Amino acid sequence: MVSRLRSAGLAEIQEKLVAGVRLDLADGVRLFEARDLLAVGWLANREREKRHGARTYYNFNIRLEATNVCVASCLLCAFARLKPGDPGAYTMSLEQAWDKLRQRVHQPLTEIHVVNGLHPDLPFDYYTELLRGFKRIRPDIHLKCFTAVEIAFFADLYKMTDEQVLRELIAAGLDSLPGGGAEIFAERVRKKIANDVNKCDATRYLSIHRIAHGLGLRSNVTMLYGHIETAEERVDHMLRSRALQDETGGFQAFIPLAFHPDNNQMRKLPPPSAIDSLRVHAVARLMLDNIPHVKAFWIATGVEVAQTALWFGVDDLDGTVQEEKIYHMAGARTPESLTTREIERLIRAAGREPLERDTLYNVVARAS
Ligand code: V47
Hints:
Layout: H1 2-7, H2 11-19, H3 25-33, H4 37-52, E1 55-59, E2 61-64, H5 94-102, E3 111-114, H6 124-137, E4 142-145, H7 148-157, H8 162-172, E5 176-177, H9 187-193, H10 202-214, E6 218-225, H11 231-248, E7 251-258, H12 274-287, E8 293-294, H13 298-301, H14 303-308, E9 316-319, H15 340-349, E10 353-357
Parallel strand pairs: 1-9, 1-10, 2-3, 3-4, 5-6, 6-7, 7-8
Helix pairs in contact: 3-11, 4-12, 5-6, 6-8, 7-8, 7-10, 10-11, 11-12
The structure holds ligand V47.
């Protein structure tokens, strides 16, 4: 392998990894530019196995998008509708949202993941009541709700600080933050694909995660790839995530999200290739020496690429998901959900060991 790494131009990176020296921007770019994908994957797999062996995590979860009304008009998005009443716009009543959980009382779910549009007219109580109702129905369920972009929007709309919003949501039952809304931190790209006064910038996204970590919440960080970003901008995004993790230790997982071009204003772009997806996950594993998990969101990458990524640095497949809309409205042809049995089968078929986890990566033991 050493001679293969040398011919791939990766000998120096291999030496750094063995010596425990951190990779820098130039190393990250070199990993993106190296032609030998398997050499990059081999390095990433070694880092993955150092941390997790063959263990591969998944979660029994559901997704809920309570409204797609969103005052932001990001070019990348196929989910949002600008105003209530626009064709395809919806906003669930609290009862309708709670019903989504009630209908699944028979499922041993451990997490609800809620992401919404930035709705201009709902009162703040809608969100706190949403959380309280979920906890009344299932007191043990973990509420992973609202991206940093939503938290910033709430703060501006309801005239609170970001910290006040987080404290009120925590008091209502919020348990952690998902990683959505990060897109690409680099200004050049963010300005083009997600330019909206209502969408917080990278500094505020990171600041909200910092505050959340300080209040005892865990969170994830995502990166939307495969559109107009350069290799430097991908690595910069990883390095900004790594820097915050050095400060707080609060990120659990880094989640690359493959761009889907259907039904949005960037539909002329081709979707990222399988090769690119495998590389992004592998480079993330190599750059992010301080974030425990790299997740392949199978809805975004496709099931087969997510499964293959288990040998390219990935140790987590998200979960059953159920009722996902953001990707399916943007053209994803993946199923809307997988059963735990299907997820276990595809992990085993990859030669890995499936473990059901809760949101905080405690292993869930089930009587069989
Ligand atoms: O922030 C929107 C992305 C994100 C498109 O924290 C798109 O566990 C691709 O953040 N093509 C929301 N992506 C989803 C998300 C997420 C997913 C899985 C797990 C977790 C977690 C978080 O979806 C948005 C945006 O970056 N997105 N439109 C699109 N056309």
